[in-house]
Amino acid sequence: MFTGIIEATGKVEKIDRNESNIDFTLSGPFTQELKIDQSLAHNGCCLTVVEITENTYKVTAINETLEKTNLNFWNVGTEVNLERCLRFEGRLDGHIVQGHVDKTGTVESIENQDGSYFITINYDESAEYTTVPQGSITVNGISLTVAESGDGKFSVAIIPYTWEFTNMKNLQKGDVVNLEFDIIGKYVAKLLKSQRSNLIEKHQ
Question: Where are the bilayer-spanning segments (predicted)?
Answer without folding.
Answer: none
